[in-house]
């Protein structure tokens, strides 16, 4: 029995198990003896099917690897091959849609598997699938003789592409330093204590100062997203639909990256972001002086250096509160935030990831030099398709992507923040 048939059979049995449980819950009673017998039998059958499905998935992976011709990583056309992979082709191939030209897709997936020395029941895809060509740029094409049937990029310049993952990320827009294409663990030197210059008199010696050089390290942490693709969307051949699919895919990962980078996730498997590394201050009232205090904390550590990435990121409710709070109570008609895109003269961005300290109306806000926030994106991602999920009835599929990423602060003194802003509107 083929893998799609096994998956469909398992879905039907699980659906019947759910129906038995729903019927019992509707009656307000436990399963009857007959229902329990049927339920137990179905559960045993599902376990047996799980084993068959696992074997079938491993066999499919082996067949895909055997049918593909490897494109060596160092080959001149490997980067071009990575850019030519289409997300919708990968989705359709894994969903079993007939007529998908998957030769190049399989070649790239096989080479990624060899590079990583890891197998998958789905496909390995390059992170280039979250990049899109910029409109308005010249795109050179190769046309089939006479009919011009096939048009593909032949010169691939990174500067002609928009990284949708970075573009959709709030911290990316704020100026975080994104390092794509990582392989293996990452380490960067950082001076935590530096030597200082000294004024000296004639014939006086300079007192040597110690330089404390440490390393900032990142290692792959796994970010997953499940995204439904409708039947109509995945069967389109339009380049614009491919771009829309890539942006949808990248947007989900960007939201997860923002949560990890800002330090609002409590999961042990998530990165240690800004608010988890720094010691948060206060912006509780909120008051004009409290905001100045956060800015001052950077200045006293020589971190208030405007390289174009100084910015605020706050929860949308923080912005609403700041726009309705006067700078000096009873004597001032000016509000703390008068332009929704600016705060204290620095750029301002909203992020719903900054949920605060748990109190219903308390929300978080961060200020910092975002070029000192490093985001590492590893080179490849894993794609699996479930054609029998919630989208099955409408002909759609569920796509699960796994991306490896991590974040680290080069200098924690470059950031300040608070988890306690009372956003209740009076």
* Beta strand count: 14
Counting H and I runs of at least 4 residues, what is the number of helices? 12
Instruction: Report the average pLDDT across residues.
Output: 82
Largest sheet: 5 strands, mixed
What share of residues are in beta strands?
15-25%
Name the assembly state. single chain
Rg, nearest Å: 27 Å
Content-based structural category: alpha+beta
What proportion of the residues is helical, as a percent range?
25-40%
Q: Low-confidence parts, pLDDT < 50 over ≥5 residues?
A: 135-158
Q: Overall 3D geometry?
A: globular
Distance N to C terminus: 65 Å
- Report the order of strands and helices: HHHHHEEEHHEEEEHHHHEHEEEEEE
Give a written overview of the molecule.
A hairpin with a 2-residue loop joins strand 9 (342-343) and strand 10 (346-350). The radius of gyration is 27 Å and the shape is globular. The relative contact order is 0.14. The chain is built from 12 helices and 14 strands. By secondary structure, it is an alpha+beta fold. The longest helix is centred in the first third of the chain and has 35 residues, at 33-67. Mean pLDDT is 82; it is low at 135-158. It has helices spanning 3-27, 33-67, 78-84, 87-94, 103-116, 164-168, 170-174, 231-234, 239-262, 274-277, 288-299, 316-323; strands spanning 123-126, 131-133, 161-163, 177-182, 186-193, 212-218, 221-229, 310-314, 342-343, 346-350, 362-369, 373-386, 397-409, 415-422.
């Amino acid at each position: 029995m083929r893998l799609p048939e096994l998956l469909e059979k398992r879905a039907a049995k699980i659906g019947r198990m759910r129906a038995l449980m729903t019927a019992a819950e509707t009656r307000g009673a436990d399963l009857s003896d007959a229902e329990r017998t049927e339920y137990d039998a179905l559960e045993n059958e599902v376990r047996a099917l799980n084993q068959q499905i696992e074997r079938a998935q491993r066999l499919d992976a082996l067949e895909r690897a055997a049918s593909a011709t490897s494109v060596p990583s160092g080959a001149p056309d490997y980067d071009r091959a990575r850019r030519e992979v289409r997300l919708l082709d990968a989705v359709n191939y894994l969903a079993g849609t007939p007529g998908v030209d998957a030769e190049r897709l399989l070649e790239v997936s096989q080479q990624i598997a060899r590079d990583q020395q890891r197998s998958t029941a789905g496909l390995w895809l390059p992170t280039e699938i979250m990049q899109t060509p910029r409109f308005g740029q010249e795109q050179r094409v190769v046309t089939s003789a006479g009919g011009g049937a096939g048009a593909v990029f032949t010169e691939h310049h990174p500067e002609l592409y928009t990284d949708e993952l970075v573009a959709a990320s709030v911290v990316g827009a704020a100026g975080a330093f994104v390092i794509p294409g990582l392989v293996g663990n990452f380490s960067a030197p950082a001076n935590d204590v530096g030597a200082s210059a000294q004024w000296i008199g004639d014939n006086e010696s300079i007192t040597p100062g110690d330089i404390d050089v440490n390393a900032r390290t990142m290692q792959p942490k796994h970010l997953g997203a499940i995204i439904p693709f409708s039947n109509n969307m995945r069967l389109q051949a339009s380049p614009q639909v491919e771009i829309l699919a890539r942006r949808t895919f990248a947007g989900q990962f960007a939201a997860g990256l923002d949560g990890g980078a800002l330090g609002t996730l409590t999961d042990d498997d998530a990165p240690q972001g800004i608010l988890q590394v720094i010691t948060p201050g206060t912006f509780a009232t909120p008051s004009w002086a409290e905001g100045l205090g956060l800015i001052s904390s950077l200045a006293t550590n020589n971190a208030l250096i405007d390289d174009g990435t100084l910015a605020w990121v706050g929860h949308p409710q923080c912005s609403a509160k700041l726009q309705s709070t006067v700078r000096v109570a009873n004597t001032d008609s000016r509000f703390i935030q008068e332009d929704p895109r600016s705060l204290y003269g620095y750029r301002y961005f909203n992020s719903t990831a900054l949920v605060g300290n748990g109190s219903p109306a308390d929300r978080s806000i961060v200020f910092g030099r975002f070029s000192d926030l490093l985001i590492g994106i590893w080179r490849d991602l894993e794609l699996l398709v479930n054609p029998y999920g919630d989208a099955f009835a409408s002909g759609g599929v569920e796509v699960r992507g796994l991306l490896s990423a991590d974040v680290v602060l080069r200098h924690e003194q470059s950031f300040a923040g608070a988890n306690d802003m009372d956003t209740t509107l009076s």
